[in-house]
Amino acid sequence: MRAKYVLSEVLVGLWRNVTMTIAMIVTMAVSLAMLGASLLLYFQVSDMEEYYYTKLEVSIFFDKDAAQPAIDAIRVEIENDPLIAGFEFETQEKAYERFREMFKEAPDLVNAAQPESLPASFRVKPVDPDNSQVLIEKYKGKEGVANVVDQRKVLEKIFEIFGGMQKLALVIAIVQGLAALLLVANTIQVAAFSKRREVAIMKLVGASNWFVQAPFVLEAVFAGVIGAIMAYLTLIGVKIFIIDGTFKSLFQSTVLTPIPWSNVHLMFPILAGIAGVVSAVTGWITLRFQIKV
Question: Residue 52 half-sphere exposure, CB side, CA atoms within 13 Å?
Fold first, then answer.
């Protein structure tokens, strides 16, 4: 009987303040969606770092007019270098084919380039990626070598950009979360004020603190969980229509790795748990000040 009464009071309370309830749910949903996006971005950057740092290469580019004996001398040195796990020689023709594949969406750029404008190179895989700087210093300046490039330097800049985006999304989520918490507290205050006489009567007849507080707290938890569901559905929509739709080619490129569905589905229990706990705690604290129990 008590459980039935509490649930009925929750539904009545939500309907009584339906406008504020909707505002609370929408604000919570936006906040949780931003939080979920920042968490997905955090997981994605970590996965990309782990994926790419195991595949890092050092590229030794040759001058366009580098003589074959100079290239052969570098090859012999690479084959006997204990710091190198493997290597691949890329001719100008191979470099041009790879360039055409990478920029096939920009035909004007491809047509403007010629095979002889791209240098031949050795693509070297270090035994330990942390020793890439040693390899750069070792081969830079040798006869026929134009430049030595560490892919880690390029990737670090990309990861810095992603890290900035991650922090921005987290800051927005925190601001939205604070707004949602204020709405939760305000909604509970209004609900408690509108039922102040009922609460006073229940206290007079010996109702427990839990029995008085439960309907208000559950209202906040219900709104938080609904907001989490909306946020989860928003992330699914972004995954289907944006990541796997509009920007599908971008996430199939050599830079961005696909976002797995397992990470998207993981967001629901995380967001629902956060929303439920935070809403319950906020509601309970608000009631301690609003109702003398």
Answer: 21
Cα–Cα distance for residue pair 157/153, rounded to 1 Å: 7
What's phi and psi for 105, nearest 5 deg? -80, -5
What's at 130, amino acid-wise?
D
Alpha carbons 17 and 180: distance in angstroms, whole number: 16
Query: pLDDT, tens digit, for every residue of 108-149?
Result: 666 766 666 778 888 888 888 777 888 888 888 888 888 888
**Residues 68, 125, 91, 61, CA torsion sign:** negative
DSSP 116: G
Q: Measured in whole angstroms, how far is the alpha carbon of residue 98 from the centre of its chain? A: 30
Using a cut of 0.85, tell me whether the model's pTM lies above it: no
Q: CA of 290: how far to CAs of 59, 275, 283, in Å?
A: 67, 22, 10
Q: What angle, 0 to 180 degrees and rounded to 10, lies between the N-to-C axes of helices 18-53 and 209-237?
A: 50
Query: What is the rounded CA–CA span in Å between residue 172 and residue 34?
Result: 7
Q: What is the DSSP letter of 130?
A: G
Q: State which amino acid sits at residue 274.
A: I
87 forms beta bridges with 124
Which DSSP letter does residue 254 get?
S
Q: With contact defined as beta carbons under 8 Å apart, do 195 and 287 qualify?
A: no
Amino acid at 4: K
* 3, amino acid identity: A
CA distances from 55 to 40, 51, 84, 175, 255 (A): 23, 7, 13, 38, 12
Please give the backbone phi and psi of residue 121, each rounded to the nearest 5 degrees, phi first. -160, 160
Burial 208-218 (b: 16+ CB within 10 A, else e): eeeebbbbbbb
The structure tokens listed for 273 are 């748990």
* Structure token pair of residue 59: 């590229």
Check: CB of residue 223 under 8 Å from CB of residue 28: yes
